[in-house]
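User: Teach me something about this protein's shape.
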Amino acid sequence: MNSFKKASFITLMFIYAFISLYRISNVNGREITWDVLGYYLYLPAVFIYDDPMLDDPGWLEKLNEEKDLTGTLYMVSTNDEGEPMFFFLMGMSLFYLPFFLIANILATPLGFAADGFSLIYQYALVIGCIIYTLIGLFYFRKNLRHFFSEWITSLVLLIVVFGTNYIVHLTIKNLEPVTVLFMLVNIILWNTIKWHQSYQFKNLLSIGVGITLMGMTKPSEVMIVFLPLLWNVITWDDFKQKLALIWQKRLSFLMVIGLCVVVASPQILYWWFKTGHLIYDSYKNPGVGLDIFTPHIFDVLFSYRKGWLLYTPVMIFSIVGFVFMYRKNRPVFLAILVYSVISFWIIASWTEWWYGAGFSNRPMITLYPLLGITLGYFLQFLQRVKKRWSIPISLSIVFFIFLNQFQWWQARNYIIDLYRTNKAYYWATFLKTKVTAEDKELLMIYRDFSGVQVLTHPEKYKSTSLLDLSFDESEEILSKKYESTDGYYSMTSDQNYFPVIDEPYKQLSDQYYIWVKASIDIRFPDNFSGTLPCMVMHMARREGFYGYNATDIVPGKPGEWQHYEFEFLTPELRARSDRFKCYVWKRGEIGFDIDNFKVSKLELKSDME
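Assistant: First, the predicted structure itself:
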């Protein structure tokens, strides 16, 4: 075998060595935090803390206080009765499981705390996910070799690994789901190819189990079923023949479906015992979810915050490659196109379209096994074009790989802010190795993970009154909504809320956030006792509310007026039609008097937007 025939194998071995050494040397001691904590939570709950149903997450609260694992315990959801349950599905826990068990067995003999979070557990999970990465790349190469030459395969491997945001999840963030999803897509693709060649049961089973595990890791990824379903389909007649083939092989399909149910049974049984339903949506967060009819397509592709093609520009050529794949290999074109479009639409429809602290657009990595194929067809085309075109395009590819690597370096060194980068900041720090205080002033508004927000630099904002109630008898609003005979308003014992503002955000501002300032005078009676009232401000939509802030109002001297002030930063909007609400919530049994209730909005001045 000469070097030409070994090119892609040598390339793969180089990648293996690089990512393994880099990842092992960059275990930071805080690997199991935030989202990863949520994916992993099943394992310590079952094997260490004797709480498999998550009935009493007090142990988790204690661990979080000791180890600072997450800002808020958002990875604990509730069922319909308000009982705690796991927020994420258990797919990632199944993949972590063998390495967790090894760590759990070795922890005490090796002198580590057997608490599920000491360093041995973190190393075990990191090594486990390195193995999944290696498996994923192994099948990626096999799939590419099915379509392309050694050299095209080698180039695609190098471009995808070093020219895209996948490098982040091969290395410092390899505990996140995209590592496993990339592997599963490649396994499903390889077995789809093989099944359509020989119709062997083992290939069909691999496809079915792969789809099941993808759904248990990220539910929307079950859409990959379109890949094998539409494979080798060009016309409507082809599709009817595919359905006829499925019917002909129905016994095999029924057996696979049954085995897939067995694989999914731990999740199904958990839902059943915890909620009484065989399938249950535990993703209860009104501030985050799918808005399938209002996708953020432009933002996902081009936003300075997380635009995929801005931070991973080399993948432009994979999009162009769809044209050449259509010309060269129509039997696979429809399957790859349909799944890619559906998957992208779902990614763009997620209201938190920037996907946290990921570099570029993280979930797009799941599509790279297929976009690698379209990229390969583009590179085939590039081999045939004249040098006046191929040379500048090749140089562009090299530059885009360099840009991706450099911007990844900037992100690791906190020059690119993974949450707050905007157009002004991006260009102010473009290709910079240092960032100044002046540059940082250009960033998007800072949002503290604790939810506590403090208004700074009020001079940057213009204030507009939303409400000014002094409860004078002459005010027309009183004749419509309130009663006041003494120049103030009295909340009675049977009134729980004093609703004031309930407006769609789009009627309040065209900016992406506003500050709201509220002030109020309250007089508590001598006999006041019980639960404290609070000032409530939040965003609301049909599923519930988000960005909820309720600040207790502590009584002053009984019988005397006390002045209170409150500030609120609107959260990241799910939709501009969501409603902003501001009201006093009495909560207790005893009423009190209200006066001088004022609410104003603060918007950035036009020269600072």
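Now, about its shape. The chain is about 50% helix and 15% strand. The CA atoms of residues 527 and 590 lie 8 Å apart. If you'd like, I can walk through any region in more detail.
User: That's plenty for now, thanks!
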